Amino acid sequence: MKSKIVIILLIIIGISANAQDLLSLPKHLKPEDRICFAMYTVHKKIVKLTAQFYPIKNFEPFQASLEIEKNGKWIPKAVAPIRYPGYTALFRIEDWDDTKETKYRVVHNNKAFYEGIIRKNPVHKNEFVLAALTCNSIYPQHGGDIPKTDLVENIKKLQPDLIFFSGDQVYDHSQHYLYWLKFGRDFGDVIRNTPTICITDDHDVGQGNIWGAGGKKATARNGISGGYYMPVEYIKEVERAQTSHLPDPYDPTPIEQGIGVYYTSLTWGGISFAILEDRKFKSGLLDLPKYAPDIFPNGTKDAIFDARIDTRKLDIPNTKLLGDRQLEFLEAWTTDWKNAEMKTVLSQTVFAMVNNYTGKHNREIIADFDTNGWPQTGRNKALAVIRKSFSPMIGGDQHLATFVKHGIDDWGDAGYSFITPAIANYWMRWWDPKKPGKNRRKNTPNYTGDFLDGFQNKITVDAVANPSALQIKEGGKLSTRVAGFGIVKYDKSDRTITFECWGRNVDIKDPNQKQYKGWPITISQFDNFSPRSYFELPTLELSKPNQVVTVRNSFNRVVVSSVRIKGKTYQPKVLELGAFTIEVGEGNNPIKYFEIQSEKNNKTKLVVKLK
Predict the structure, then answer these.
(1) Rounded CA separation 29/45 (Å)
(2) How far is the C-alpha of 556 from the C-alpha of 552, rounded, in Å?
(3) Which of 68, 90, 477, 488 is most buried, with most CB under 10 Å away?
């Protein structure tokens, strides 16, 4: 009878016996094991570190300290409360010397000690390495219960300068804390010693899909109405646990319901990263029937499967993607090149719809509103700003690794994006168009080349890690159905970026191991704003190398592009005929050249003498 009561209680609280075995708190947890893991970033000589605790028991203190090692002794640097109910402690150290590698430890009750390493700023390294992961599925039937040892060991071999988790670290929709602890146990050995960017996505906040709509209250868990379904304190606790170690937000003003924001930038090792919340301000779908009643006669749906529908009608007025606040942030970030040689935008997912089969390869999906291909105007606004800084984009969420060059007015007139494969692939997707792409490179698959996606956005597909029948059959093994992770390598002297796409259960140091078909891919930084049709300004000949060059429209002062050039010569490209202002240098007093005319095949030169 007693065992039946226990089973009933487990069902009531929504935790299966298997989940308990997998996720339950360690049995007989001792006070000296109270700290589960820690994550940190270093930005502008400020360390922010979040320590994650197991539940505090009895009369144990609700505060902890952060210490650093100096000359063989541990020196206290900060004290922080342990926040309830998520048991997190956020530490902050300012005026940090980032030129040295330093050991740290989190201390609780003089009994629990958790050690790690705060790395020195790799600004003098020529190659900067980023490891990128997404979609940490928990479902045993498709690999979620498989240990993450292969990933952790590869990251240790790689020794990246930065780790990026792009969302869906937690897939349970009501028990974030338990599954977040498991995430930390799985990856703690690498994130304790490496700066880590971690952002949230829909599953993290308890929804299958989310259109954040500025923080309004969602009417149902499917999220179609826009907003957040779970209680506000749940949302806040998720974001506190996963993002409070990030650099301070660009504009910390809360959104509706008092939900916070974390979009910000991180400069580390000479690379500047814009960290977006691409779904927090995204419009919900309730207005779709109002503007397209012929498409939605029976109310709103989150996907369209009818190929006869003209999806251009769905770009309805006043809908948002990034929202005005994040666009303003990206504009400001575009021209801030302090301590940065190259830039990258990190987001939850791709700014297009690069899948046309979802779940099963049996019915083509025409339009998927969960992607950032919708709303089209919002998507184009985002890409138009991102390309100004010659930034590639890295994201996740899709469970389908892709490498795409985006287009706004023409194919290829915006930047490249790399979407990494899922850690474990429960929900599969394919990019398998019925017609081959146009302008494909020689001997490349039919699914590459120029396409219009489901929302009629222009995309040029270079590589896709589509699931195969064999991989689906072997889904229970460590392959977990085209799962894996991404590696991005920045060569700062050549200004090139190499994208690698690896599967599970491989050794990245083994020369006989292969990446997914189509990878690795190397591009120039300048390929992220290299339209097929363009006009030119004069070739700049500078007296000093590697200067920041910003081009503005002379009429409205809007930034056209801003980049730290390579070497002493540079010819800016623009998209139209007209007059432009060229600014050379950083800070408040760049050298300016006004009313410079653009031309086709511009052969003129402009000599720039810098002090």
Answers:
(1) 36
(2) 8
(3) 488
Place of tokens 């075995």: 21
Evaluate if residue 240 carries a pLDDT over 90: yes
**If you search the block for the tokens 């159905």, which residue do you land on?**
481
Angstrom distance (rounded) from CA 604 to CA 491: 30
Dist CA 378 CA 347 (whole Å): 15
User: Among 211, 484, 227, which Cα is nearest to 372's?
Assistant: 211
Cβ within 8 Å of residue 564, ≥6 positions away: 337, 340, 341, 342, 546, 547, 548, 549
CA–CA distances in Å: residue 454 to residues 23, 299, 479: 39, 20, 29
Contact 68, 217 (CB under 8 A): no
Name the pairing type of β-strands 196-198 and 264-268: unpaired
- How far is it, in rounded angstroms, from Cα 188 to Cα 181? 10
Which one, of 166, 183, 564, lies nearest residue 343 by Cα?
564
Look up residue 509 and give its amino acid.
K
Dihedral sign of CA atoms 150, 153, 159, 163 in order: positive
CB 516 within 8 A of CB 582: no
In the block, tokens 């089969």 appear at: 357
Number of Cβ within 10 Å of residue 172's Cβ equals: 19
Whether the predicted pLDDT of 342 surpasses 50: yes
Provide the pLDDT confidence category of residue 9 given band limits of 50, 70 and 90.
Answer: very low
More confident: 140 or 430: 430
Structure confidence at residue 442 as a pLDDT band (50, 70, 90) = very high
Both tokens assigned to 334: 């575009």
Residue 262 and residue 239 in contact, taking contact as beta carbons nearer than 8 Å: yes
Q: Tell me how crowded residue 65 is: count the other CB atoms within 10 A of its CB.
A: 18
Q: Using 50, 70 and 90 to split pLDDT, how confident is the model at 542?
A: very high
Q: What is the DSSP secondary structure assignment for residue 528, as one 8-state letter?
A: G
Instruction: State yes or no: pLDDT of 159 exceeds 60.
Output: yes
Q: Under 8 Å CB-to-CB from 175, ≥6 apart: which residues?
A: 14, 15
Three-state secondary-structure class, residue 150: helix
Residue keyed to tokens 């990206």:
330
Tell me the pLDDT tens digit for each residue of 224-237: 999 999 999 999 99
Distances (CA, A) of 488 to 132, 224, 293, 347: 8, 34, 44, 15
Q: Are 351 and 373 in contact (CB under 8 A)?
A: yes
Secondary structure (3-state) at 428: coil
Contact 50, 90 (CB under 8 A): yes
Q: How many CB atoms lie within 10 A of CB 445?
A: 18
User: Which pLDDT tens digit goes with each residue over 387-418?
Assistant: 999 999 999 999 999 999 999 999 999 999 99
Distance CA 146, CA 424 (A): 9
pLDDT value of residue 587: 83
DSSP state of 63: E
User: For residue 12, is pLDDT > 60?
Assistant: no
